[in-house]
Amino acid sequence: MGVDYRVGLGGTTPPDPPARGDPSPRTPFGPPRGGLVWDVLRAVVSARVTETGRPALDIVDVGGGTGGLAVPFAALGHHVTVVDPSPDALAAAQRRAAEAGARLTSVQGEAASLDGLAGPAAADLIICHNVLEYVDSPADAMSAIARVLRPSAAVSVLASNAVAAVLHRALAGRFAEARALLASGAPAPGTTPRRFTLPELTALIEAAGLRVGEVHGLRIFGGLIPGALPGGDAAAADALRALEEAAASTPPLRDIASQLHVLGRR
Questions:
Q1: CA torsion angle for 175, 177, 181, 187 (degrees, to 10)?
Q2: In this model, does residue 231 exceed pLDDT 90?
Q3: Which range marks the domain in which residue 169 is found?
Q4: Which of 28, 53, 76, 160 stands 20 to 30 A from 192 (CA)?
Q5: What are phi and psi of 57, to 5 degrees?
Q6: Structure confidence by residue, pLDDT tens digits, 79-93
Q7: 89-119 burial string, b = 16+ CB within 10 Å, else e?
Q8: What is the CATH number of the domain that holds 147?
Q9: Residue 233 falls within a domain, yes or no?
Q10: What's the chain's Rg over C-alpha atoms?
């Protein structure tokens, strides 16, 4: 269920941020198990296993939808809990886990009450992807997440980029919308979906008492190229993938990506 953010110079504006609980938001390089975010999280998990000496970690995927990232980690033998307000999404996550032969815990609930659901200092890794755009209070959600993290544990935050929203609209010729977004900086209070600049996102993480770690941008060029790549042009697709990977951690290119991925650490 990936979202295609590609826009032609005269095409349409990319859609709003992925819906809350999007089961497996794809990276610019394919599905989770083949993408940049997956690779980053695998490295985080591997380092945590080495640090703790525990081969099976406790992972919480808040707003995890149907388990697009949770199930692959559960299949590797980790203790994974999906927290989501949608009972239908949680049921789908359990079906996906059963198909993969993995054990998954599902809990219905909101990000802001995560500490009450999972308990304090209970997780080695928390995944929070495409959630902050939709919660009532991003600050409350991030504070709850911080309380659930164990010392030196990490949270993976993925959120839509406000800068990219302005840029994409301008390139699509929707200048009034771009100017309005630029002037407002954010939706009116209480409205969703939100978007974040990188300084806003890092400030949110730091305000919860966490340290900001690695930062990556997802779909930097995919939203800017003039139209979709020719069908079946594998070489061009590979070249774009390599370019995205090279630029993902390179400011200022990283800072105009469609989505921002930030690691926060306790």
A1: 180
A2: no
A3: 32-265
A4: 28
A5: -95, 165
A6: 999 999 999 999 999
A7: bbebbbebbeeeebebbbeeebbbebbebbe
A8: 3.40.50.150
A9: yes
A10: 18
Structural domains in the chain (count): 1
Q: Please, are residues 151 and 39 in contact by the beta-carbon 8 Å criterion?
A: no
The yes-or-no verdict on residue 172 having pLDDT over 70 is: yes
Residue 78 lies in a domain: yes
Taking the model in full, what pTM does it have? 0.85
β-bridge partners, 154? 125, 265
The whole-number average pLDDT for the span 108-112 is 97
Q: What is the spatial distance between Cα 49 and Cα 60, in angstroms, rounded to a whole number?
A: 16
Q: Is the bond preceding residue 193 a cis peptide, omega within 30 degrees?
A: yes
Mean pLDDT to the nearest integer, 230-258: 89
**DSSP state letter for 19:** P
Specify if 23 maps to a domain: no
Per the listing, tokens 């009034």 go with 176
The answer to whether residue 12 is domain-embedded is no
Kindly give, in sequence order, each residue whose CB lies less than 8 Å from that of residue 58, ignoring residues fewer than 6 positions away. Answer: 78, 79, 81, 122, 123, 124, 125
- Alpha helices, DSSP H, located in 101-134: 114-118
149 to each of 59, 95, 119, 125, how far by Cα in Å?
A: 10, 27, 9, 7
Single-letter residue type at 142: M
The answer to whether 262 and 212 are in contact (CB under 8 A) is yes
Q: Which tokens in the block code for residue 238? A: 């590979």
